[in-house]
Amino acid sequence: MKKRVVALVMACVVAFSMTGCGSSTSQAKGSETKEAAGAASSELVDGKFAETKHITVEVYDRGNDGGSDPTNNIYTEYIKKGMLEDHNVEVEFVEVPRWTETEEINNLLASGGAPDVCITYSYPTIQTYANMGGVLDLKPLVDQYGSELKNLNSWLGDTNIYWDLNDETGKLWAIEGKRANSRRILTFMRKDWLDQLGLKEPTNREEFYTAICAFRDNADKLLGKDADKMVPFSISYDVGWRAALLIESMMDPAITDKEFYINGFDDRKLTQNGTKEAMRLLNKWYNENLLWKDFALYTAGDSTEDDMMKAGYVGAFQHNWDYPFRNGEDSIQANLKRIVGEDAKYVAVDCFENSEGKNLKYVDSTAGDRKIFFPSTNDEPLASLLYLDWISEPEHIKYLQIGDEGVTHNVLDDGAIEVVAAQGDAIMNSGNNIDYTITCNGLNLADDDLTLLSMSHSYQPSDPDDVQQAIDYAAADNKVAKNVKVPEIIAENGMGEALASKRDIAYDTALVAKPEEFDKVWDDAITDYLNAGGQAIMDERKSAFEGKYGDSTSVE
Amino acid sequence: MIAAAKRLVTRGKSEGSDAKTAEWKVYLKRYWQLYVLLFLPMVYLLIFKYEPMKYVLIAFKKYSIVQNVWEMPWAGNNGMEYFIQAFHNRDFLNALKNTICLNLLDLIIGFPVPIIFALIINELRFKKFKKTIQTIAYMPHFLSWVIIYGLAIQLFTPSTGLINMVITNLGGQAVPFLNDPHKWVGTYIFLGIWQSFGWNSIIYLAAIAGISPELYEAASVDGAGRLRQMWHITLPGIKSTIVVLLIMALGNIIGSAFDRPFALQNNLVMQNAEVISTFVYKNGIKGLQFSLTTAVGLFQSVVGVIFLLTANWLSRKLGERGLF
Lengths: 556, 324
What we know:
The complex is a heterodimer of chains A (about 550) and B (about 325). Chain A has two domains: about 40-180 and about 365-445, Periplasmic binding protein-like II (D-Maltodextrin-Binding Protein, domain 2), CATH 3.40.190; about 185-365 and about 480-485, 3-Layer(aba) Sandwich (D-Maltodextrin-Binding Protein, domain 2), CATH 3.40.190. Chain A contains 21 helices and 17 strands. Chain A has helices at about 1-35, 75-85, 100-110, 125-130, 140-145, 150-160, 190-195, 205-215, 220-225, 240, 245-250, 255-260, 275-285, 305-310, 330-340, 380-390, 395-400, 450-455, 465-475, 495-510, 520-550; strands at about 45, 50, 55-60, 90-95, 120, 175, 180, 185-190, 230-235, 315-320, 345-350, 360-365, 370-375, 410, 415-420, 440, 480. In chain A, the strands form seven sheets. In chain A, strands 9-10-8-11 form a four-stranded mixed sheet. Chain B has two domains: about 20-60, no CATH class; about 80-315, Orthogonal Bundle (MetI-like fold), CATH 1.10.3720. In chain B, helix 2 packs across helix 15 (about 290-315). At the A-B interface, helix 1, helix 3, helix 4, helix 20 and helix 21 of A face helix 1 and helix 14 of B.
């Protein structure tokens, strides 16, 4: 009997020691292989490894209805085959849910199982990982292997590769993917409603207001028995984004780089100088029943608002410049046509003028979009860099974006490429497969003229003329963001989520406040935001800016 | 003489322990199968409940995503840095306040409901009717909070919710059940009770079933009506069950489930809806402040244990059995 008890105890001990040691052994392995990687360049013959390498790459799972498997479709096969042939590297895709990507990557990093090539939109998140020792410094790698990375260098250029380089520490934690297209956000309106009411497309804020008031007042005529579902101007819980053009139009156009940067941690412009007045106007509109009453009850990733647009209840909204055209047959535009009628459609309008009378749009530079980083568990930094290089090759980008002729695109008479709805494995889960072309966001067909010509044809079945109108408006009067090269702002560490949540609370509560209480609600919410860490960030940004640029308020 | 006595005592002891070991051996030989059965659940508890406890140390250390918990450096202020930070964090204090308020309301309003329901069900005569009612009352327990929120949206939203449409069609003003901070608390409590009262009444019904029918017969012979019987026989009969459940509920007063508040909250009601668990999720898991939020979680557990022990001690003092 005693023996049995001892055996049991032993079994427990063994089980325990195994679980306990798991993490430490994997750490040790990580550091060994990192050193080994230094000698790897000599392994490369004609860009190929002598021995097959294996890397894992993050890919978003967008959970589209009827989409293809994001880790296994004709595009992943194309990449896998190409990487194996060109570099003798096996690629494995790891899916990460698009709407909870940060949490997922946190967990993967903490468990040592993060993909070798990770992407995220948030640099502070990468900085936080880096401070914990979770990210590889890319500077020595890019320096050492630069000659092997011709496509990457020519596509991204020093601007995007070294955008996040810290001048003081010399560390480079991430490479910025390139925005091939800087178009950002636009206003869309129901063209058929404007026509029915005898209104023309608005060209300034006043006309826009008149139009949405007309939508509200003529709900019976426009929607019949569904008149009570009318939403003249739809805004979601993410007010700072979904009213961005209105908010930015209230900003002082003469704002200095310094002021813009100091208030720039929040990309929804919460503390910029015109936001309060913009919100006062929106609050007025809300209380005049021009906005969607239930907006705050639906959170990120909820499709209720899209469904309302598809069903034809929404008069106007602001969103990504190509939003109503995205997703082919399932796009808002296509659904609207099916459900409401042939004439029903959204068109882009450009009508939020600033104090100078210009419809200025603040757009990002080629950087500032997706950031690529290698976690410290990456055993194959060279193979991973070669992956980035391969994915930046113009022909590869082109194939991934438009697929095979006759399957996902047709060539029109004028040479323009028209993207058509695909079936099964050929379905692109993201527009132009941006989830695979991680160094490139936006259509890029290696030839600028062809790209521009094709862009309006890449949103079948939407009318190319409507898309062209959006393309033109979105590119008009752009103001490009500048890169402020200052050291790490310590106060930003880990504050992204908490402050984003505070920001949304501020926007949402101010929007629904009674007009006479607006000032109090807004000021309280801003105070709360500042006290929760917003002020500390602004103070540190201010001193960092002054440390780098002295008395100048400009970065030039 | 004393030495002799001592020797006697020790001999007695060793004889006793010998006898005991022998008894154990016989016992184990006879029942070893039961211990084998117990083995798996024990291993489960050890691996998934006890082994992870070492990570409590994260509350006292500077968290790093790549180091294991032993290698992480200690936090400042003798490891108490994150506790101090938590209690200077207004959001945490607000979450703590909300947690306690919502749980107290749950306790005061929600705790008696299953007891009353069990008493009513017990008085029902028609078996089929009783069974139907019980089944309907249990059902919400099996719905996840995400689904319940979906239902709540269909019912309570200001412009498209069913209830509000009825109210506005009758000429009233839409009630912001979900987007006014105060009304939200009411909705939160109501939905919580609706979801769980049927399920929670099962244990009371079982206790009621255990009361000897002779007591009821004797009472009715003495002329006691139904209400009197309920008051003097049924309620005292399930008193100890009530006390045990009350103790457990008190142990949870500062604890918080995650899915209920998380599914129901929105930006407009956050001042009342942010509780500790959602605070931890937002700041810890999404915001990468693992040390701070582990400290918060540890604090929550310690206070919970204190509540539990106090309630238990109190109930024993008052002559009830208590949990242990």
